[in-house]
Amino acid sequence: MKCRTCGRKAAVNMRQHKLALCKEHYLEWIPEQTERFIKKYGMFTHDEKILVAVSGGKDSLSLWDILNRLGYHADGLYIGLGIDEGIAYSSESHRLADQFANEHGLRLHVVDVEAEYGHTIPVFADLSNRGKGRPCSVCGMTKRHVMNRLARDLGYDVLATGHNLDDEAATLFGNTLTWSKEFLVRQSPVLDEMNGLARKVKPLCRFYEKEMTAYALLRGIEYIYEECPFSVGSTSIYYKQLLNELENERPGAKLIFYLNFLEARKNGLFAPQAQALPVMHSCPSCGQPTTAPDECSFCRMIAKVKADPNIPA
Ligand code: Q46
Ligand code: ZN
Ligand code: ZN
After folding, report:
1. Does ligand 1 lie within 6 Å of residue 291's CB atom?
2. Which of 90, 108, 80 is nearest to 226 (CA)?
3. With bands split at pLDDT 50, 70 and 90, how would you rate the model's confidence at 275?
4. Ligand 1 near 135 CB (within 6 A)
5. Of 57, 153, 260, 307, whose CB is crowded by the most CB atoms within 10 A?
6. How many Å lie between the centroid of ligand 1 and the Cα of residue 150?
7. Residue with the nearest Cα to atom 5 of ligand 1?
8. Packing angle, helices 136-154 and 297-307, rounded to 10
9. pLDDT tens-digit profile of 216-258?
10. 129-162: per-residue pLDDT in tens?
């Protein structure tokens, strides 16, 4: 295989794009494509302040690297979840996020959930009875809360996450299996600023996971190889496997599934009906928008755990 640009030996062969590139041209191609997606979907401009949610994994660190290379004002946010599970998952991912920031002279904000709110994510999940043994719902809710709070308090215009095509196609597949219209309506590379919440963007949403792995490896980015231990056995991993089988038979199927959905969505196939939109108001404790009648679900979880006399603070 030869590089399409220079004819030297290719380092990456992308059957799905019928494109092979050498290391040098692959490392140029990824940021060029990212810039194209940022413009196409109107994600942000060079005048805006971007907060990148950095987990220490290949996608978020690569995203941060790419935005930095493209000259955007992008700072990082690492959220310490307190997940150990015998592999020191959180402390190792924190170390790698810190290391990347130091090597590139970038600014990383760190919020440690236990230091800030009293307990780690697995402990919150057990104490609040919102998912014993599988803390993902508490974890997702907490991450959303912390990201929104930091973006608001520190004046960022945009929150960027490292979701790749495999993530987006698996989510889409799950929502399509159940025709969950409320989720389909909201699945997009850009979620506009709403009720005071910062705009949310996914600049890597059109890159295959293996393309991001290749980028991280060829760029020499050191990232945490292990997935979060709590992701083992999740439905989204199962959907990813199914979609990979399809992709192996039909290269490009995953991308077509996602892009044709975006096109259908743009053409109004899942247009929200005004009366179906939930009524939002500000949480009296944290000020973030919520559909709950009183406090938001995050503040209710914190209050419930605090009020329990059997739980040490
Ligand atoms: S939600 Fe669940 Fe992830 Fe949180 S507990 Fe781990 S797997 S990190 S994206
Ligand atoms: Zn080349
Ligand atoms: Zn709240």
Report:
1. no
2. 90
3. low
4. yes
5. 57
6. 20
7. 136
8. 110
9. 999 999 999 999 999 988 999 999 999 999 999 999 999 999 9
10. 776 668 999 999 999 999 999 999 999 999 999 9
167 confidence band (pLDDT: 50, 70, 90): very high
CA of 145 to the centre of ligand 3 (A): 8
CA of 87 to the centre of ligand 1 (A): 15
| Substitution site in 142, 230, 235 for ligand 1 pocket (most atoms within 8 Å of beta carbon) | 230
Ligand nearest to the CA of 141: 1
8 Å CB contact between 305 and 119: yes
Residue with tokens 């979907």: 41
Locate 97 and state its tokens: 């996020």
Can you give the three-state secondary structure of 189-245, one letter per residue? Answer: CEECCECCECEEECCCCCCCHHHHHHHHHHHCCCCCCCCCHHHCCCHHHHHHHHHHH
Whole-number Å distance, alpha carbon 131 to ligand 3 midpoint, is 20
- Decide the pairing of beta strands 19-21 and 12-14: antiparallel
Tell how far CA 305 is from the center of its chain.
27
Supply 28's token pair: 């140029």
Q: Ligand 2 is a single-atom ion; what residues have CB below 5 A from it? A: 3, 5-6, 22, 25
- CA distances (Å), 220 to each of 54, 71, 215, in order? 17, 20, 8
Output the pLDDT for position 103.
Answer: 98
Confidence of residue 197 (pLDDT cuts 50, 70, 90): confident
Q: In what order do the strands lie in the sheet with 158-160?
A: 108-112, 73-80, 49-53, 158-160, 199-201, 190-191
- How far lies 158's CA from each of 112, 154, 221, in Å? 21, 11, 24
Cα separation, 110 vs 4, in Å, equals: 42
pTM check: above 0.85: yes
